[in-house]
Amino acid sequence: METEISQRKAEHLEVAQLASSQSLSARLWDHIRFEPNALPELDLAAIDSSLEFLDRVISCPLLISSMSGGIENADRMNIHLAEAAAETNVALALGSMRISLEQGNANSSFNLRRYLKSQPLIANIGGAQIIGSRGLDTAMRCVEVTEADGLFVHLNPLQEALQVGGDTNWIGVCDSLERLAADLPVPLLVKEVGHGLGITTAKRLADLGVKWLDVAGSGGTSWAQIEHARVREGTSIFSDWGIDAVSSLLALQRAELPLRLIASGGLRNGLDLAKGIRLGGYLGGMAQPFLAPALHSTEAVVAKIREIQEEFRITQFCTGSGCVADLREAPLLSVV
């Protein structure tokens, strides 16, 4: 089992870097346009991009989203991500911890608190791994070994269905999520993995007591295509499955559910991040822009984060948004 999971993780990292693993559909983020403010009455140097997340103050509403862990390349990658998150003061989400739990150890991929200062750290486990009487124990173990400020449960039924030997018995996930929402000592966050969350699922999660939802919409990395590419050539018929992040955010914002949203799914720069905040995201998550830098060095990740932060601040300046709260009300020229 250890060799099989490790090999799959390594293949995931390799295939995820290919252009063919990105969504083939049009980027709806490009259709969202801010109304320019030619009279911002602001000093760019004094603009405030900070906000509080999981009881910690971060420099801007950026979350480095879950990628991988449990193998040599991912160990090095995650240390680079953690060091860069500490230097730039942004939030970090770990990849799935299943491999660590099944091997019975907390390897260096997930033991990252020592690299962070006061930055939010979010552990991560799959929906199929929390089913049953041991589900709460599994979730608690994820939080304990990482000293995390929150726990992501990722919902990836399509990926599991396409994965050879994937976990396809999902009976009991809802019961387990309701139990976790009530009993977990840290906030529970639920996310998809790039195929989006619609109104029906969001309402059900809210009814279960979930408070945080990462929409993780289509438009970015396609895990359906990654699983397809691991075993066969060509394009999966499910490569563009799901709901895009823009449509998901707009629908959930209109629904006025008791949820705080994280915008992710195809965000690639600071302007995209600002659009995600404007459309209802409390903060925005990115993974793909950090993948190649993370495999290279901490300095490369820091440079990418700094670039995104500067693009975000310029967007604030040019929309007359002195703080993140102002940006949430910035006028738009067009919305899909």
Level-1 CATH class name: Alpha Beta
Assembly type of the chains comes to single chain
Low-confidence stretches: none
Main beta sheet: strand number and arrangement? 8 strands, parallel, barrel
In angstroms, what separates the terminal alpha carbons?
Answer: 45 Å
**What gyration radius follows from the Cα positions, in whole Å?**
19 Å
Order of helices and strands: HEEEEHEHEHEHHEHEHHEHEHHHE
**Class by SSE composition:** alpha/beta
Fraction in beta strands = 5-15%
Strand order of the largest sheet: 4-5-6-7-8-9-10-11
The CATH architecture assignment turns out to be Alpha-Beta Barrel
Description:
The strands form three sheets. This protein has an eight-stranded parallel β-barrel with strand order 4-5-6-7-8-9-10-11, surrounded by six helices. It has a two-stranded antiparallel sheet with strand order 1-12. Strand 5, helix 3 (98-103) and strand 6 (121-126) form a beta-alpha-beta unit. It has 336 residues and is of the alpha/beta class. Helix 1 crosses helix 8 and helix 10 crosses helix 12 (298-318). The protein is 41% helix and 14% strand.
Keywords:
about 325 residues; alpha/beta; TIM Barrel; 8-stranded parallel β-barrel; 12 strands; globular
Q: Could you give a quick summary of the protein structure above?
A:
The chain has 336 residues and is of the alpha/beta class. The protein has helices at residues 2-16, 72-88, 98-103, 135-146, 157-162, 173-183, 199-207, 223-231, 245-255, 270-278, 288-296, 298-318, 324-327, and strands spanning 33-34, 51-53, 56-58, 62-64, 91-93, 121-126, 150-155, 188-192, 212-214, 260-264, 281-286, 332-334.
